[in-house]
Write a structure and sequence with these properties.
With 237 residues, the chain is α/β, with parallel strands linked by helices. It is built from 7 helices and 10 strands. It has helices at 35-46, 51-58, 62-82, 109-116, 167-177, 190-198, 211-220, and strands at 8-10, 18-19, 31-33, 86-88, 93-95, 123-128, 144-149, 152-157, 182-185, 202-205. Helix 6 links the parallel strand 9 and strand 10 (202-205). The termini are far apart.
């Protein structure tokens, strides 16, 4: 038997259904960008979601998101380089009915209600060394944190860095109070991880030295979740 067709959830239909180049080559057909391809561009490139998050909201696997996204980018590139019109239509999709318990994709009615109710937006935190560029290996003792929210970056001091004891829990509470939704760190103590879990903050394992590289890696969906947490030792986590 054939596999059941998997429709992609779309939260908002495009307001414009096509674009025309200033100079058009009449011998070339228009590029047809499907609705689900348009949606991946909107969620990833405009809203700043990772491919993994895009898949969650469209109800498809990340690998499928990558295929759709790559196809959409290729079509846009062809249209720009060759001067071809873009028509936005078709595709295998279902329009969001707004009945999900949460939607942060930015398009449907549920998203607007969620924001009015004080829902969290995407905010990433990465511990920084003294040079304010490299990832600090010890989360609780990091001198600074890099915050990134909707593409806006900010470096803030860690108020728990000089704590005599319980620094892990203190820094975790600081990050919770800062309304972060994602933490990228090389390691994390169990006590701090319990605080993050209670606040529904996702933790990802850093893989490189430069903190800025991790923002792109997260957007590309190449970071793995951190699942192993160590116990506290000598007052440091």
């Amino acid at each position: 038997m054939p596999r059941p067709r998997k429709y992609r959830k779309v939260c908002k239909l495009p307001e414009n259904h096509g674009f025309m180049p200033v100079v058009q080559r009449e011998d070339l057909p228009p590029v047809v960008l499907q609705i689900d391809e348009y949606e991946t561009l909107r969620i990833i490139d405009r809203e700043g979601f990772s491919q993994e998050q895009c898949g969650e909201y469209m109800h498809i696997a990340r690998a499928t998101v990558q295929q759709i996204y790559t196809s959409a980018r290729k079509k846009i590139a062809d249209a720009l380089v060759e001067g071809r019109p873009i028509h936005i239509s078709g595709g295998e999709y279902l329009l969001c009915d707004g009945k999900e318990h949460m939607c942060e994709c930015g398009g449907c009615r549920k998203h607007r209600r969620y924001e009015k109710q004080g829902g969290k937006k995407m905010k990433i935190a990465i511990p920084l060394d003294e040079n304010k560029q490299d990832v600090c290996l010890v989360l609780a003792r990091a001198p600074f944190f890099l915050f990134c929210e909707n593409g806006v970056e900010e470096i803030v001091e860690n108020p728990a860095a000089a704590a005599q004891g319980g620094a892990g829990v203190q820094v975790a509470q600081f990050l919770v109070d800062s309304n972060i939704t994602v933490l990228i760190t090389p390691r994390c103590g169990q006590n701090a991880a319990d605080v993050f879990t209670a606040a529904e903050i996702k933790i990802y394992k850093s893989t490189d030295k430069a903190a800025i590289d991790h923002l792109k890696a997260y957007q590309d969906g190449t970071l793995e979740e951190l699942t192993h947490f160590h116990g506290g030792f000598h007052g440091i986590q």
